[in-house]
Amino acid sequence: MKIVLITGASSGIGRATALRLAREGHHVVLGARREDRLAALAKEIHDAGGTADVHRLDVTDHADVAAFADAAVEAHGRLDVFVANAGVMPLSRLDSLHVDEWDRMIDVNVRGLLHGIAAALPHFRRARGGHFVTIASTGAHEVVPTAAVYCGTKYAARAITEGLRLEAEPGIRVTTVSPGVTESELADTITEPGAQEAMRAYRAVTLPADAIAGAVAYAIGQPADVDVNEVVVRPTAQR
Fold it and tell me: Residue 198 and residue 187: Cα distance in Å, rounded?
């Protein structure tokens, strides 16, 4: 059994990952802002025979993320896996000048990831082991219209995670999972009508969130001397 912390656990890929890992016998520590959804998820996990803790979490707050990791270690004696999943995707054209939305993506998708690394890495180094998993996107590999800023944050997430892999001491494993079009609430944050319409067409074929959870489970389930560094998971119809 591993102690697995998951940010953005209240919906989408985070929720599916929590359910999958709990079914596989791991203890999951659920972090997100929507406490009511976390409580319902924890109950679902407990009712199915799994174990979970709930913590209200804002990944844009460095101290909050540090406390999230510290509380898990205090309660369970260790932190084995940190899944940095929290993300937002309010797509828009650059000439729409949705600066507040750009800032929000940078705060959650980039600063939130850095806060997770800062929170988890000291515990991993003391234990001389651990596994950091970043949920990036196929947007970390390509740029499409309306997604310049979002893709920029995901390119950054991929680069930061690769830097962590290169710098981390032996025993600390690092994985980037890049989902293609996946069922989630991310598209619900798009306010620009043109981007909304483009996303409806783009999301005509989607993966279930559990497909991405399966990739996370695969990576963390490998023997300690096997480091799965990067996984890209797309619907077969996505190009």
Answer: 11
